[in-house]
Each structure stands twice: as structure tokens, then as C-alpha cells.
Design brief:
Layout (H helix, E strand, L loop, with lengths): L6 H14 L3 E10 L2 E11 L5 E10 L4 E9 L6 H12 L4 E3 L2 E3 L2 E2 L12 E2 L14 H15 L4 H4 L7
Antiparallel strand pairs: 1-2, 2-3, 3-4, 5-6, 7-8
Length: 166
């Protein structure tokens, strides 16, 4: 990783890697976990079976190693329900529209509206819709990674490790 201090540098770094694999960013932020600088990410990728998979992680880098907590949640059973329901709501409200290329204003990189490559975040993947779709893979991954971030505890051995300083 290039840094743990600048979220914009991290977003660019992950954005480039994911877009080459037809993946996309849902969230990339720097966070504090018990006085450690860490990185929180949520990505989405498509599986070989054309299913969406959400990857939520916390990366805690040190001088010579990193600890990574990762949650992988596949969209199964209710594929497209969240997107359809939110899409219809936003169309009714006039916030998105349809043209010959599909939905206008539906998919966007959450940090760079000019970036158009890879699997862009759609508006239904914003956290404000998690309460409406508690069983959705993204909701479950986001809820669990946030809970881990709030509750994580580190051993004295980890606390003594040399910090990552980039």
C-alpha cells in the first residue's frame, strides 16, 4: 500500500487495480483502530458465475507486515432486488432517468464522478439503503466490518510492533 495517511492516494491506488479486474470501489477510508492507523475498504467484484461479491476489509499495516480482516459476502437469492427497488424510487423522484444507454446518473465512482472504468458503485449501494435491505450481502458485510472496527482489541505484542510510516 502506498500510504495510510491519505485517503485520496489510496482511492486512486485501489481504483486502478480494481477497474483492471472489472471491480469497483464502494468505500475507501483511513480510520483509527485503537490508536492504529488503518484502512477500511469495501469493494465489489463479479464472480465467474456473474454474481456480485462484496469484499469489506480492515488493513492494519506495520513496518514489516500487515493484519487484514476481510469479509466476503456474495449476493445470492435476492439478486437485483435492492437495485430494482431503489432504482424505481429514484426514477419516481426524478433523481435518475433512462436513455438509450440505460440509467443516467445511476452508477458512479463514489469519490471521482469523472472516473468511468470498472464496476462502478450504483446509488442503491449507499449506506442509507442498508436499513431497507438488512439481508443484502452489502448490508451484512458493511454492518460486520463496522462492528469489528468498533470492537477490535489488540494484544500487547501487536501494540508493540513498529508502525507503518508512509
Amino acid at each position: 500500500i502506498p500510504t495510510v495517511y491519505d485517503a485520496n492516494v489510496l482511492r486512486h491506488y485501489y481504483r486502478q487495480q480494481l477497474s483492471q479486474q472489472n471491480g469497483g470501489i464502494i468505500e475507501v477510508d483511513t480510520v483509527q483502530l485503537n490508536d492504529f492507523n488503518a484502512i477500511k475498504t469495501i469493494f465489489k467484484i463479479k464472480s465467474a458465475e456473474d454474481k456480485l461479491i462484496y469484499l469489506a476489509s480492515l488493513t492494519i499495516p506495520f513496518h514489516k507486515c500487515s493484519y487484514v480482516i476481510k469479509i466476503q459476502a456474495a449476493e445470492v437469492g435476492t439478486k437485483g432486488v435492492r437495485e430494482s427497488a431503489v432504482g424505481m424510487k429514484l426514477m419516481t423522484q426524478g433523481k435518475i432517468s433512462v436513455d438509450e444507454n440505460g440509467y443516467v446518473g445511476w452508477s458512479v465512482d463514489p469519490y471521482d464522478e469523472h472516473f468511468k472504468d470498472g464496476l462502478l458503485m450504483n446509488l442503491s449501494e449507499k449506506p442509507i439503503y442498508d436499513l431497507e435491505f438488512p439481508e443484502h450481502a452489502l448490508t451484512q458485510a458493511r454492518t460486520l466490518i463496522n462492528q469489528i472496527a468498533r470492537e477490535i482489541k489488540f494484544s500487547e505484542e501487536v501494540k508493540a510492533a513498529k508502525a507503518f510510516n508512509r
